[in-house]
Design a protein that fits this description.
The protein contains 16 helices and 12 strands. It is an alpha+beta fold and 407 residues long. The strands form 2 sheets. The protein has a 6-stranded mixed beta barrel with strand order 2-3-8-5-7-6. Strands 11-12 form a two-stranded antiparallel ribbon. A hairpin with a 6-residue loop joins strand 6 and strand 7. It is elongated and about 105 Å long. The two termini are 27 Å apart.
């Protein structure tokens, strides 16, 4: 075997130009597969962050049935115990509590139905980008009596920062209408139509007082250390925290359409990879057959002096394997270079909306171990596999016909 491996390595460089071009074609194919994988991973992580960091969070915990009607009476059960569990969870980076209910907002010009959120002004920026989305005015603090509203809602109400508005909600304890006057502390633009047109945010202490829920919590938003944790271990998280009448859901459960869209992206990428592999396969077959036809007289002589057909087949397969190794080295070097460049510069498409998600930052390529193990291994396997066809042809060729060919 060592003899045939050495001979195969020498044979592929008998025509160096053709070997280099073929290796370059296969290497470019491998590099393109590696880059496609890296950019898709970067795009998916960007889209996940765009969805989860706006306001959703990587996961949310509610009282069972709260999300169906947003019943203000259904606060999270045993929140103190839940808080201890989250604090001790090594996968949880941050979490914050929220109060949420339906209400109305009115100005001298108009009145609108809204979803009113009470947020912790200190913890919320660790989960969402509410503070970064402010385009006019300032963010909330625990002392002020301000409210944050979206740009479109501000246009409807015809208000600006500093103007007074009135928020109205139903008090849980008495059932009466609770009203309070707030000044517009800031106007935000989240680039999410629902939030910009029909949501308002006040300090959680003010929201609890208006609703009469004391220390109650309607929603716990969670952020994980790993952006992919919810996709890979979402079921485990949900099962662990869906206890005592509470329901825990990760973003794939909260936004199933996004999960389906990302799955379709993987399917589309798979089709592209199949096409690239097909091009590579045809290039390999062409190279091996060209090499075979050029040496058909030599093969005839080898067969005439007693070389077995199996030995010729092995030689062709070893040549294909040598060509694969040569191509993989070129491809990995080229792929590493373009992925590295993409990880530094990236593609700036921030603000572009796709499938309901708005890209918030540059899409950069992301290194993954499979790009350097799985894809090169597949190239090697495919190269060796397709070589069996020309190897079978070489093993079955007629000695008389082969010897009639001249150099």
């Amino acid at each position: 075997m060592r003899f045939y491996l050495k001979m195969a390595w020498r044979n592929i460089f008998r025509n160096r130009k053709r070997t280099f071009l073929t290796g370059l074609i296969i290497g470019i194919g491998l590099a393109s597969i590696m880059f496609t994988d890296a950019i898709v991973v970067g795009m998916k992580e960007n889209m996940i962050r765009s969805v989860t960091s706006s306001f959703l969070g990587d996961a949310q915990i509610h009282r069972e049935g709260f999300q169906e009607a947003f019943d203000s009476e259904k606060t999270v059960e045993n929140y103190s115990e839940l808080q201890k569990m989250l604090e001790s969870d090594s996968n949880v980076e941050r979490f914050t509590e929220r109060v949420a209910c339906f209400g109305t907002i009115s100005s001298p010009s108009d009145i609108n139905s809204i979803m009113l959120y009470g947020i912790d002004p200190e913890k919320e920026p660790e989960i969402s980008k509410m503070d970064e989305a402010i385009i006019d005015g300032g963010y909330l603090n625990k002392e002020n009596n301000g409210v944050l509203i979206g740009t479109k809602l501000a246009e409807r109400l015809e208000v600006t920062t500093g103007d007074r508005i009135v928020l109205s909600v139903s008090n849980v304890q008495t059932g009466d209408l609770a009203q309070n006057m707030f000044r517009v502390a800031g106007i935000y633009n989240m680039q999410i139509d629902e939030m910009d047109t029909s949501s308002a945010f006040i300090p959680i202490a003010q929201a609890r007082k208006m609703l009469g829920v004391k220390e109650g919590v309607h929603e716990v938003a969670v952020k994980f250390y790993d952006v992919q944790y919810a996709s890979r271990h979402g079921a485990e998280f949900s099962a662990h925290y869906s206890i005592a009448g509470n329901k825990a859901e990760t973003w794939p459960q909260l936004v199933p359409q996004m999960k389906k869209m990302l799955d379709m992206t993987d399917f589309s990428v798979g089709i592209v990879l199949i096409i690239v592999f097909a091009v590579i396969i045809f290039g390999i077959i062409n190279t091996l057959f060209m090499s075979l036809y050029e040496r058909i007289f030599e093969f005839g002589v080898l067969r005439a002096v007693g070389t077995r057909a199996a030995s010729l087949k092995s030689l062709i397969v070893f040549e294909a394997a040598s060509l694969a190794v040569y191509s993989i080295v070129l491809g990995v070097l080229l792929g590493t270079l373009i992925i590295y460049i993409g990880s530094i510069h990236g593609m700036n498409i921030s603000g572009v909306e796709f499938a309901g998600a708005t890209f918030t930052e540059e899409i950069k390529t992301v290194f993954r171990l499979r790009q350097f193990i799985l894809h090169p291994l597949l190239i090697f396997i495919f190269t060796v596999a397709v070589s069996f066809y020309p190897a079978r042809y070489a093993g079955r060729m007629s000695i008389t016909h082969a010897l009639q060919k001249t150099l």
